[in-house]
């Protein structure tokens, strides 16, 4: 990436240095008009056009390299995010990670393509142009250096103001959007309460308040960029007046003893605006810098976040050998930033066990540890007679089917979802066993339905029965279910319990976490998990 | 295009005066910058000629140099004013756009309203609104300013120099620049749309991966999923690159255009000077003005490169005909002799009058919630009348005065308890406390610091059952004639549920209550039962 940036900087600087050439050509043509000797102006026009073409092409190419440099950075960060979040979770929500990756990461691009290159140009081009002026007239160079007083001082001034302005504006839009999202997500309630007009009035009022506050800051912030504009305009004006008076003969100093000709005068006038242009570009790109920096600091936060990786690698493996058994003793789970003691438990092939206890006691954590989804900090976990470790965790998991607490349907067809490994199984026997046959036939596209994010189209109990069908279809011996009857009406809960018991009859082992006394009673044993 | 124009109209209407003044100042800023360079060029050339002719003393230096100083200061002042005014107008427009969006969404049916809880839908809407934020500041204002500036420059050049030079500059810039920008806008449209779709799927896929991480690990599908995500990411970058190439290509053409027009001005200037009709100083004005006009172009390049994104966003946000139910329907003048609610379910008719109560039962998926949304007029229905009229034929505001529904998953907003309770209407503190007492929440709220205690985003800070009761209290304050409760006892223990149900009945003796229940079906406040 740094080589791309280097090439881009070089190209962009050469492009910037084409302008003196173009300015000289224009000055030469116009001066020739006054002298009445315009036979060579075709050559000058050609030089002007050729330099302009070169400049445009160089800028185009520099832009391409800058894009590539930015692209490499964004790709690197994105793949890091993807791999890290899938492998070891932090406490950030999936929506936050997604927003960072999809919406915010691309903000690094203008930081690199606009701000970075403006920095490079501002460090070189004004100095070169001032030196060219100095060669013709020290007064002209002095005017430029006074008008652009010690460029770094200038930049600090502009930078501070522009930064506060752009941050203010980003905040403003941020809080307005947060407000918008909240009102939108509450819109069903607002509508049902008949409060639409009132909510809109309230929204407008708050937006108006935000606007007044923001404008107060912006008015001051814009003043400082007006200073930059003022200096650049005054610089050009002073140069024009100085050159004009020199040409009239009213001023006789500042030109190394030679008299300044029209061509030299016009040349100075033409390069003056370009002296200030990099500064103005930099001020304009400050917004991109602020946005880029805020993304960078979010990335750093994420880097520093505490994470806990799962046991094993997550790759496909042959199922672990030996009769199924679990033995968990004196174990403590390692959660991000804390540790949680787990209950002792033992389970052998064909048995069923319920974990009971208030929410927060560690039921779900226990299930996750047994599946190797969370590591143990201390204690013992034996599975099929071996201690669970990175080397056998994938093989152990090949014997487990998990039914998570919240129904989760990724964005794929029901058929694909039921048979994730694409083994071409017939799903209907499993659906029948889970009492989910009618659920599927009731859907408009049956097995081709895409249930999507919220599981739209099926109720909570139906979703649970579909997940049980999926577990049956996986053919795995140990079924781990987290609160399979929560939020279900009694009939639906009974159907879920029947389906689970049918699984046990077929030789599966069951491990469930639940609040539901009916489900706990249906299991062989129940263990109370103390908080 | 219609959608985009309607968004523009809305944005402009939100602050027409400020916007007009801002536009005038942007033109003035551009013109003064151009005049500064033109006048300076003329001044230098003219002074050189006077110097050569030896009439330097007689040359009036004061008016031109005063002009140069005036333009330098004027430009700065105009630029400052322009920035303040256009940002002010943009902030107003931002608010107007969001209010319009909220209003449109509020008129949608139950399905759309429920989808607004999905985080993906919300982010999409917000990203669309963000895209449209640039419409004024990056596209419309610079576009108008560029066109007006070119016209003004044309007239000035024609008056100062000659018609032919003025025409050459105008015809050199305007048609070609329009073609370049038009092509840029067209060519970015499809990569913009693709990028938008790819970003949505990348986003969804990442959220899927994180949420279903456990399942993926168990089915050994993690590596495969990572590869899929990286492939999606590569697609988005491919589209982004296509967009970037288009924008840079347009930039290349625009800078060549500036060079071409400048050569044209030099060429015409030389012919004028050689023909003898125009002095070199005046001809120089044409050259300097042609160079300075370039300043109007770069802002447009960025604006037009975003055109595709803005266009797509406008289609989604303002596309399609808005449902203007309010205008089409008038409140009926007589609704005599009709039951408050009439329900026809499997050929049995249920009539409810003031003070009646009905419990609806049925297994999950039997359509309890849909029936309730139909009564509330958010889903199309048959066989339901409220005061003699089908709900969807009532003007929305009238229906809301009669019917109030508390959905199963109620949303609270960030803010104080008071703000949450007063979402629908103002009420005295006594009334607020009374409502809280009805739902057995008064003690909880008092312990948390009273009505001015703040809740976090989405009502964070209350447990599920407490949030539910706060939503019930909000509905009680409305004192509707017909109250629809979807699973009011969900998340409440038996004792609290009993208190809340009795409390609501006692607080609203004249209200007809319909509730969807799967627990406490036999609670004494329900006189009748309907099993679906």
Characteristic key phrases:
heterodimer, A: 531 residues, alpha/beta, ABC transporter transmembrane region fold, Rossmann fold, 2 domains, 5-stranded antiparallel beta sheet, 5-stranded parallel beta sheet, 18 helices, 12 strands, 63% helix, 11% strand, elongated, B: 532 residues, 3-stranded antiparallel beta sheet, 19 helices, 8% strand
Helix-strand layout with pairing:
The complex is a heterodimer of chains A (531) and B (532).
Chain A lengths: L1 H15 L1 H18 L5 H47 E2 L4 H11 L3 H29 L1 H10 L3 H35 L1 H6 L3 H53 L13 H43 L3 E2 L15 E11 L2 E4 L3 E4 L3 E5 L6 H8 L5 E8 L2 E2 L5 H5 L2 E4 L10 H5 L9 H6 L3 H5 L18 H15 L3 E5 L7 H16 L3 E5 L3 H6 L2 E4 L3
Parallel strand pairs in A: 6-11, 6-12, 9-10, 10-11
Antiparallel strand pairs in A: 1-2, 3-4, 3-5, 3-7, 7-8
Chain B lengths: L1 H13 L1 H38 L8 H45 L3 H6 L3 H42 L2 H49 L1 H6 L3 H54 L4 H13 L5 H8 L1 H12 L6 H4 L12 E5 L2 E5 L4 E5 L6 H8 L8 E3 L9 H7 E4 L8 E2 H5 L7 H10 L3 H6 L6 E2 L8 H15 L3 E5 L7 H14 L4 E5 L11 E4 L1
Parallel strand pairs in B: 3-9, 3-10, 5-8, 8-9
Antiparallel strand pairs in B: 1-2, 1-4, 6-7
Structure description:
- The complex is a heterodimer of chains A (about 525) and B (about 525).
- Chain A is α/β, with parallel strands linked by helices.
- Chain A has two domains: about 1-305, ABC transporter type 1, transmembrane domain (ABC transporter transmembrane region fold); about 325-530, P-loop containing nucleotide triphosphate hydrolases (Rossmann fold), CATH 3.40.50.300.
- Chain A is built from 18 helices and twelve strands.
- Chain A has helices spanning about 1-15, 20-35, 40-85, 95-105, 110-135, 140-145, 150-185, 185-190, 195-250, 260-305, 365-370, 395, 415-420, 430-435, 435-440, 460-475, 490-505, 515-520; strands at about 90, 310, 325-335, 340, 345-350, 350-355, 375-385, 385, 400-405, 480, 510-515, 525-530.
- In chain A, the strands form three sheets. In chain A, strands 3, 4, 5, 7 and 8 form a five-stranded antiparallel β-sheet that branches. In chain A, strands 9-10-11-6-12 form a five-stranded parallel β-sheet, with helices on both faces.
- In chain A, helix 2 (about 20-35) packs antiparallel against helix 10 (about 260-305).
- Chain A starts with a helix and ends with a strand.
- Chain B is an alpha/beta fold and about 525 residues long.
- Chain B folds into two domains: about 1-320, Up-down Bundle (ABC transporter transmembrane region fold), CATH 1.20.1560.10; about 335-530, P-loop containing nucleotide triphosphate hydrolases (Rossmann fold, 3-Layer(aba) Sandwich).
- Chain B has helices at about 1-15, 15-55, 60-105, 110-115, 120-160, 165-210, 215-220, 220-275, 280-290, 300-305, 305-320, 325-330, 370-375, 395-400, 415-420, 430-440, 440-445, 465-480, 495-505; strands at about 340-345, 350, 355-360, 385, 405, 415, 455, 480-485, 510-515, 530.
- In chain B, helix 3 packs antiparallel against helix 5 (about 120-160).
- The model of chain B is unreliable at about 320-330 (pLDDT under 50).
- At the A-B interface, helix 2, helix 3, helix 4, helix 7 and helix 8 of A face helix 2, helix 3, helix 4, helix 5 and helix 6 of B.
